[in-house]
What does this fold into?
Amino acid sequence: MSSETQQILTTDGIPLSVSLKKAERKNKIKAFLLVVPLLLFLIITYILPIGDMFMRSIDDKMVTNMLPKTFTAMEKWDGKEMPPEEVFAGFYSDFKILVQNKEHGKLAQRLNKEKNGFNSIIKKLFRQVQRNKIDEGQSIKEQIMKVHKRWRDVEYWQAIKRTAPPYTTAKYLKGMDMYYGPDGNIMQVEEDRRIHRILWLRTLEIAFFVTLFSFLMGYPIAHLLATLPMKYSNLLMICVLLPFWTSLLVRTASWMILLQQQGIVNDFFVMIGLVADDNRPEMMYNKVGTYVAMTQILLPFMVLPLYSVMKTISPSLMRAGKSLGGTPFIAFWKIYFPLTIPGIGAGCLLVFILAIGYYITPALVGGASGTLISNQIAYHMKTTLDWSFASAMGLMLLTGVLVVYWVYNKLVGVDNIKLG
Amino acid sequence: MALPKYTETRYKVWHYSYLFICACVFIFLIAPLFVIFPLSFNAEEFLVFSEGMKNLDPDAFSLRWYKDMIYGTKNPWGLAAKNSFIIAIFATIGSIILGTLAALGLSSRYMPYKGIIMATLISPMIVPLIISGVAIFFFMAKAGLAATHTGIVLAHIILGTPFVVITVTATLTGFDHSVTRAASSLGSNPVNTFMKITLPLILPGVISGGLFAFVTSFDEVVVVLFLAGLENTTIPIQMWTGLREQLSPTILAVATCLIILSTLILVSAELLRRRSERLRGINR
It folds into this structure.
């Protein structure tokens, strides 16, 4: 009884704590309702489609749906010796339906990817079925095995069995130049055909060096901008902001003009005698072009966060360091540099993440040796139409970016990203 | 930055080489933009400075490529510019509305699960564009919006909102909530308070976020490449095809126009930033 009398009541007679909680919940709901439209919009149009990418990348239902009876019958088969009569019977009845729907070609194509040689034997079987040569009163196993000697080979039946599961990680393995061998273990592609690994390494290499170059070039100018008096620094800031706001394609176009063989950069090299006029180096359609153009395009993303951090560092700190006997270099290294680390982190993260997913500039100035993993994704999306493979590689790239982001968050914290 | 008189020689050398390095980097940043200007007035078809141009011969300059850009037959620039502006304007409006609302919610101190929701809302900025492109394409294809203006506008709203969310949230961090409470206590309803008190104060943040969204949409090519049909061609798409096939001076004329546009945007963004800092009482 005594506790009730001690409770503070509002004018309606409800305990104050209850009333406060109610008000707080109301405020929570109000705040949340403001976010709901954008959150729902993004979940529907963006987050779920990324999930859809994942489903597509592991999807392998085609054969599973084409040969349902075969796979039911195969469940009892040990997979070592020739399958029993039921498997053949199941396969025959599935195949008849495929022939009716004219889908046996698709099956042949898919199985041929699993093991070479399926194309011709499925065609042979198709002709036999079409001419009604197979007598359902007799052993179907015997009859199918007579069609071609490969139907008598247990390896082909094992290959069919491997396509049974509706999901596969094969596309991810393909992205790393690996594949499933005949007995289901993971094999490496021959050394001269490992194109994807080269692309992954090149993407990492280019992203890393572009980040490094941007840092080496961005740090001094961010420092200059932060220490100069306002009237000069505002003017110089335009040099950073104008490229930042200018179309990516415009900047790429200007590099294409500058770097061409008769271009201004080459003219300049000839003028100062660095190269002979008849021996102008190729600076575009290779890695040089990619490095130069990407560094210039991404440099503002390095300078802006560095600048906003350096702006907050008081110049008296450096003076104090010097007056206590440090040389300018020691004062810089021991005092100034550690204070700029959040800016360095933010700038490097931004540039690295942007560089690793770059597509337009490498495609235009990169040539064959400058293409990156994004170009490969776009190629499979638009040209080969192997969307599941493009999805798999996209998700591998996304995982990489998220790992970088997570590491950065652990080291520096995400709150340091500022936009000018 | 004048050096004190007592500076040792080696530090003087270091200081001047540092200034020299900075100058080189500034030239590296800005010079490529200036190459485009004179070459777009080239009377000839080649993308190098002709002898006449080097001698400043007036005959070597012409407006030929600008005429070609505007009146040229089979030139897609008119349609592309129209599409680009329509798409960018609608995408900006959409991004501003959705982004500002979300930012208002996010800056409330009652907002639950702030971290994870913020991460979700700005994810389109972190995920590489090519992946966003693939994902958005899958959605639009399923929804039957591929190769439509609506589809591209929606895609650009996805890419543009993170900028609005970030700039408006930043504006709201210095926001004095007692002014809205004062308005409420004086009898204003929430909508009225927002329109008369909150919005004018956060307007600079909203507009600069909107500028980011506009530029993002206007310059976006990766996602549009997946989504656009022939009818929906935009300026970046035309530039992309032009640059891949053959670099013609007409592209440089377009590029010059785009640089002028970006200068205008830069100036307005800068003015807005200063106004915002003044309104929020941040003195420099």
Summary: Residues 77-279 of chain B form a domain with the MetI-like fold fold (CATH 1.10.3720.10). Chain B touches chain A through 87 residues (CB under 8 Å). The CA atoms of residues 17 and 23 of chain B lie 10 Å apart.
